[in-house]
Amino acid sequence: MPLDFYLNAATGGLLTGLVYGLSALGLSVIFGVIRIVNFAHGEIMVLGMFATLLIFRHLGIDPLASLPIVAAGLFGFGFLLQDMVVRRVAHLADHMQFLLMAAIAVVLISLCLMLFGPDAQGLQVDYAYESFAIGPLLVDKVRVYAGLAALTVAGLLFAFFRYAPTGKAIRACGDNPVGAQVVGLNLRRLYALTFGIGTACLGAAGAIMLLLVDVHPYLGPSYTLLAFIIVIIGGMGSLPGALLGGILIGVSEAVAGLILQPSLKSAFSFGLLILVLLLRPQGLLGKAVR
Amino acid sequence: MRRILEGASPRARVLLAALGALLLAAPFLVDSYVLSVLIIVLFFAYVGQAWNLMLGFAGQLSLGHALFVGIGAYASAALFVHFHLPPWAGVFAAVALAVLAGSVIGYLGFRFSIRGAYFALLTIAFAEFTGIAVAHVDWLGGSGGLFLPVSNRAHDDLANLRGSPTMFYYVILTLTAGALALCSWLLNSRLGLYWKAIREDQEAAEALGVPLFRCKMIAVAISSGLSGIGGVWYAFYYNNLFPETTFGTSHSIELILATVVGGVGTLFGPILGAFVLTPLGEVMTALTEGIGIDGVKPFFWGLAVAAIVLFRPSGLWPWLYRLLALGNGTRGGPR
Amino acid sequence: MAGRRRAARLALRGVSKRFGGLQAVSDVSFDVAAGEIHALIGPNGAGKTTIFNMIAGMIRPDSGQILLDDIPLVGRRPDQICRAGVGRTFQIVRPFSQLTLLENVAVGALSWTDDIDTARAHAREMLALLGLGGRAEALPGEITLPDRKCLEVARALATRPKLLMLDEVMAGLRPAETDRMVAVFRRINRDTGVTILLIEHVMRAVMALSDRVLVLNNGRVIADGSPREVTRDPEVLACYLGSEDLG
């Protein structure tokens, strides 16, 4: 019985972890190519969650069906944000970039606050309480769908960077911006695309996440920190690393939640972050370049 | 004082003297509301000065300075609540613990070569971790918060830091002036020049005989110690401490905002930034109160900060310095 | 300054360094006698800068010994090696860009004095020596590239080295400026006796300055002798053929 208990929690954590991983992918893509640390990460994801909620309420569309719409919307948002604002601080010191992103985060939180109020809001799909029985395991349907959806989007992203000419060009920019410019790539446009792709990941992750949790404006910072932890554990700029880190955090969070008080869960994540920073700062799958 | 004024024009000297006189006389000139705003201004100016020493002088970005303020606050408050230890004695424990925390982070960060954004994340992680830990220690009030007894407010008791806002005002004014003098002296010392060299290019500095590790450790120790003192003042002024608001990343950001807006790496940047931002926040509160919707104030607040980053990226002080022609043209730039 | 002799003897014994699959330096041994000027020449990638970085402590050799007046340098930090008497310049100039020229040079002088005013005074002397006396309050970005090279030298000299290592300080200078630099190094060497090891591609400067020339190729010493001997060495000529002008 206790073993089943842990296995159930671990499976749930694994599926949630895939969604975490997808969200962290958004952070990793932006950092890996543009070298901007997106401190407004969680807030942008919350924006995606609210958008999904609106679509569900007014049009009755399931989050998984509205995922492409939300992702497309946030792609546009990210594209414009990079091209009109973030681009202008690329030459500034780290702390100025950080401050700009933090200011953007504050603006987004307060925007959500003004539009939706401070209370937690959620949605209920009709399959909310159904589950699949796999051997001894009993897994929530929403979680399975969420994990599969996250995996699909991540797979599309991998394929894009591997096979699409634009994806390859973006990778080239990340590896060697000067060289990319020399061979005639339009850095400004590719950076905007990259930021857009990063925020589109967040939109997708937000839409999926709304199946699992309720949304409120102050959710942002905790998602930002979570994504940082995941990306650093997986390795900044490594896409498979982000997914692996997400799974690792998802599972350990779920299991730790059984053993520790819930309030200590995040202490566990921060402890893990400190350890990884000290022992393997390039992350589990990152390249040792520093 | 001589060092602070080095390279300043006569106009700057007059302005500085006038500002000093105004600040000294402020409690007799303004009402209690304005005084309360000035008190917050000076607190941010003081902590900003401490943080600036680490990033602006020595080039090490900390985004977890709330940790040092929080440790100082909690240490002195807990000793006062449980052992009736007066803050003038508690401040030693506060500084010792804050410096210890700073040294641990610095030691790990510098020995393991964690730089830039990664070092910043390390400071965030330590601050958040400590906040969660404090929330689980009943002796420190747990997540419910630690409260100082609010009594004896009738007369000023400097030794126990119990008294009127005017007393707190003069305490924080003294601290701010002291931090300014200390930073100014350090900046013109051998250590200060070493810090600036490290900030610009640490490998070139090392090749010129600068002991990197020692210099960076000293910067972190002084910065965290000063922040710890600020924490003592913070605890006794506000009388209540909550783990999340004290150690959280948003508190860290709040503490560094004035310096970034005023100008990182300058002596007067933290002070100017605090004098701009805090009143700006107050004005926004007043303007948006009538609207009655949450989030209006932080919305405009965020836009204002973003605008400063985008349009005055080196801070307001260097710009004001040129605008008012405060230099006498002998030295490189604003200080 | 004259009369204060500070020269050191440098010895490398079987020094090797490997970067991944590349043997950057293999089993290099040579001696620089106190007070002499030696040049280190060789094609790009021969391992010259790697040798500099190992002497200065920025890179740790895989094997071998580096001795400064019989004091082992391997394992010491760059700042300790600087204080032991090794001053170096960087191939690509690395000024502290927000510090004035005077402050840039004063950082070097602080390696032997605690007093900031003494350091500033010494920095002024060094700037004057390198022809930058009038620009003490300028920022590095406000002076020309040849002047920045002089700044780099002034900074290294300010540490009062016993061994001065110059990494391509003449590159990109006009002939007249090269001659000025050569004269400065001659004078410093004569006045203080400092030992100089230079990496140089400008043969005009190498021939004019050096007591001895070491030729490196693929991480090995292929010739070691007087400038005249080295330029006649068939192996040296073969390795330079068509790529460099030895005139």
Overall number of structural domains of chain B: 1
CATH fold-level topology of chain B: ABC transporter involved in vitamin B12 uptake, BtuC
Contiguous helical run count of chain B: 15
* Largest β sheet strand count, sense and barrel closure of chain C: 6 strands, mixed
Annotated CATH architecture of the domain at 1-74 and 195-247 in chain C = 3-Layer(aba) Sandwich
Quaternary organisation of the protein chains = heterotrimer
Read across the widest sheet of chain C, the strand sequence of neighbours is 6-7-8-3-9-10
SS-based class of chain C = alpha/beta
Distance between the termini of chain B: 13 Å
Strand content of chain B: under 5%
Low-confidence stretches of chain B: 329-333
Question: What is the element layout, followed by pairings?
Answer:
The complex is a heterotrimer of chains A (290), B (335) and C (247).
Chain A: H1 2-34, H2 41-59, H3 63-84, H4 94-116, E1 131-134, E2 137-140, H5 141-163, H6 165-175, H7 177-182, H8 187-209, H9 220-234, H10 239-259, H11 265-279
Antiparallel strand pairs in A: 1-2
Helix pairs in contact in A: 1-5, 1-8, 1-9, 1-10, 2-3, 2-4, 2-8, 2-9, 3-8, 5-6, 5-8, 6-8, 9-10, 9-11, 10-11
Chain B: H1 2-5, H2 10-29, H3 32-57, H4 66-83, H5 87-111, H6 116-135, E1 146-147, H7 165-187, H8 190-200, H9 202-207, H10 212-238, E2 240-241, H11 243-247, H12 249-262, H13 269-289, H14 296-311, H15 316-323
Chain C: E1 10-19, E2 22-32, E3 37-41, H1 48-56, E4 63-68, E5 71-72, H2 78-84, E6 86-88, H3 101-109, H4 116-129, H5 145-158, E7 163-167, H6 175-192, E8 195-199, H7 203-209, E9 212-217, E10 220-225, H8 227-232, H9 234-240
Helix pairs in contact in C: 3-4, 3-5, 4-5, 6-7
How would you describe this structure to a colleague?
In chain A, a hairpin with a 2-residue loop joins strand 1 and strand 2 (137-140). Chain A has eleven helices and two strands, in the order H-H-H-H-E-E-H-H-H-H-H-H-H. Chain A has 290 residues and is mostly helical. Chain A starts with a helix and ends in an 11-residue tail after the last helix. Chain A has helices at 2-34, 41-59, 63-84, 94-116, 141-163, 165-175, 177-182, 187-209, 220-234, 239-259, 265-279; strands at 131-134, 137-140. Chain B has a single domain (30-323), classed as ABC transporter involved in vitamin B12 uptake, BtuC (Orthogonal Bundle). In chain B, strands 1-2 form a two-stranded antiparallel sheet. Chain C has helices at residues 48-56, 78-84, 101-109, 116-129, 145-158, 175-192, 203-209, 227-232, 234-240; strands spanning 10-19, 22-32, 37-41, 63-68, 71-72, 86-88, 163-167, 195-199, 212-217, 220-225. Chain C has a domain at 1-74 and 195-247: 3-Layer(aba) Sandwich (Rossmann fold). Chain C is an alpha/beta fold. Chain C is globular and about 50 Å long. At the A-B interface, helix 4, helix 9 and helix 11 of A face helix 6, helix 12 and helix 14 of B.
